Amino acid sequence: MSDPGAALLLRNARLPRWLLPADWPGQGGVPGLADIALADGRVQSVLPARPGAAGAGGAAETWDLAGALALPGLVDAHLHLDKTFTLPRLGAVEPGLLGAIDAMMRDKAGWTPGDVRQRAERGLLWAWQAGSVHLRTHCDWWDPAQQPIAWPVLRELAEDWQGRVRLERVNLSPLTLYADRDWAWRTARDVAASGPGARLGGFVHSTNWDPQALMHLLQAAQAFDLDVDLHCDEELNAGAQGLAGVVATMTGLGFEGRVVCGHVCALAAKPEAEAFALLDAVARLPITLVALPVTNLLLQDATAGRTPRQRGLTLVKEA
Questions:
Q1: Which CATH architecture has domain 74-299?
Q2: pTM (predicted TM-score)
Q3: pLDDT over 70 (residue 52)
Q4: Which of 32, 35, 50, 143 has the most beta carbons within 10 angstroms of its beta carbon?
Q5: Is the pLDDT of residue 58 over 90?
Q6: Active-site choice (61, 121, 159, 234)
Q7: Residue 234 known to be catalytic
Q8: Distance (Å, rounded) from C-alpha 40 to C-alpha 44?
Q9: CA separation (Å) from 182 to 89, 122, 178, 189, 310?
């Protein structure tokens, strides 16, 4: 073992091929098992397992995984912990995204800090037990006059779960609110002041499209050194302009590599040539895209009494 000071040695771990170098030994096309040395919460070395090797090579503790699969900690890049476990109390919900938003708005009237904390922490626990170590949650921030009650609760949970899960928080505000430049700057200031892991976000949709508001959002984020995470084009409208607007606004702004666009379902509705040209522009900047297949399969092309025709998934493979 090359790391005699390792705190933990994981012996005989099975690693996916994409984690291993091309010259990793194997048999019959199957990669051989690995010994993984860990110390101070980090991987110190990954070496081919030595069959029959005795002892821990100086490691404080040794676990024999006996060929079990070992993976890096999982990342869930788009959550809504403030909304978790509300379904049983929502009652009848109209199909589709806007119906889901209306139902959540009604439920939100009864939220308390204790209610949000109990539900969100339950979601955190489930994610951690499933192997997730890095989460990003969006938090509804629809009232222009005040912070939502969930925002400080999520910050407290981020602090409480340090060492187990890294929790980032994004304010989810309608793009229309950013049309007020003063509000955009105040909100970015408040988000930045709320502690580490805070990001600036917005809901960008054809029903609220406003290029000037988007400019204010990105400029405010840049002014307060905040990464941006947008709900963008969460619809199957070929004319949706959100992603193209983000590309146009970011070009020349000097804010490249700091923006995530989630959902971007409308890409799947655009003509291929237009969609591919837009994806090329996204890659050049670059902008990170996050797909949410389960959510979009449920909420897109959903109308009462009508069978959905479209899946609602963005162009993951093409991107």
A1: Alpha-Beta Barrel (3.20)
A2: 0.90
A3: no
A4: 35
A5: no
A6: 234
A7: yes
A8: 9
A9: 37, 36, 8, 11, 40
